[in-house]
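Database export, one record per block. Field names are fixed; values are copied verbatim from the stored entry.
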Amino acid sequence: MNKNVTKIALIALALSTASSALGAGKLEIFSWWSGDEAPALDALVKLYSAKYPSVAVDNATVSGGAGTNAKAVLKTRMLGGTPPDSFQAHAGQELIGTWVVAGRMEDLSGLFKSEGWDKIFPQSVLRLISTKGQIWSVPVNVHRSNVMWYNPAKLKEWGVTPPKTWGQFLSTCATLKGKGLASPLVMGENWTQQHLWESVMIGSLGPSGWNNLWSGKMKFTDPRVVSAFTTYGKVLDCANTDASGLSWQQASDRIVDGSAAFNIMGDWAAGYYTTTKKLTPGTGFGFSPSPGTNGTFVMLADSFGLPKGVKDRAEAINWLKVLGSKQGQDTFNPLKGSIAARIDSDVSKYNTYSQSAARDWRRSTIVGSMVHGAVAPESFTSAFGAVIDQFVSSKDAQGAAAAAQELAVRAKIGQ
C-alpha cells in the first residue's frame, strides 16, 4: 500500500512538473497600456498564450498617460505586499531608484546570461537597466522622446518647413500666427508639457549639458539652464490654452485635422497614427527630431521586472522570456511605434518611421529621458510636474530653476 502511495505521489509530482514546464497556472501582468496602446500589448499576450496555453493571463491595466495613475496603484500594492507577477516600468532610474533600492526586485542577471541577452541588447540599454553589475528589468522596446510631428500637406499649404532650431521654431510660430493659426504648437496635460520641456532643454544645452544636469556637474540654477527655461516660456506662447484638458492622443489629433502645426511627443504617436488612425508615415503624418536635437536620440524603454515573492514566479519568468525574445519584440514594436531593444530585429517588419528611428538609434548620440524615468529617480520626476505647472502660469525662469535645483538636492542627484 505504501509503495502504491509513493508511486502515485511520484506520478503526481511528475505531472505537476511537466505541467509547470508547459507554463500551467496564472500570470498577472500590470501596465498602463490601455486604449490605443492596447493592441501592441494584446499581441504579446496572444504570443505568450500560444506558448503557454494553460496559463490564465490577467492583463491588468491602469490607464493614464506615461503611467501616472498606474504608478500610484503599483506603489500601494508593492508596499502592501501584493505585487503583480510582473509590472511595466520605464527602464532606468524609475525602477532602480525606487523598488530596486528598496530591495523589492529580483536580480535578472542570470536570466540575461542564460537567454544570451547580455550579447544581444546594446551596451547603452544594458547600462540603463543595471546597477552594480546586476540587471533589473527586461526592455521590450526603445522609444524616442525627441520627435516633432506635423502634417506635411498642411505645412505645404502654409508655406513653412519643419524648424531645425528653437529660434527657427519661434520664427515659424510667428509666421503661422500671422496666417491666422492661433496655436501653432499643440500640447496636452501636464506630463506632455514636461515632455516638451525636456526637448527644449536638450535642444538648448546639447547632450553633454543634459547629461551634466543628472550627474550633478551642472546645477539647474546655471545661467544656461535658466536661459533654456526662458526659451521654453517663449515656446509655450505658441501653444494652445486648453492643454490641461487634452490627452496626448487628443493633442495628436490636432495635427491630423490641421488645427495645429507641430506637436512634440514620443514615437508612441507613430503607433497611434498608424495603428489607430491608419495613416501612412511620410504622407499622412511627418516627423523630424525636435528642434536643436538633430543627431541626438533621447531614449526611454518600457521594461518589465520580477518582484520578490510573487505567487506565479515560473509563469512570470516565462513572460520575461517572451518579452526579451526576437519574436516578442518584433511582434510588439511595429504596433507600438517603437523599435526593438535587441540589435537583431527584423526591420522589414517595421514601417518607414520605425526604420528611420532604427537608423538614428545606431548613429546618434544617446541620452536618457528624464520625464520617462531613464535618468532621474521618481522622487524627482514625481515632484517636477508641480514646477512645470507653476512655470506655465508664471514664466518665472529663475524661480523654476531654483525650485528644480531644490528637488535635485532632495533627490540626491549627482551624489
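Remark 1: The two ends are 68 Å apart (CA to CA).
Remark 2: The longest helix spans residues 190-215.
End of record.
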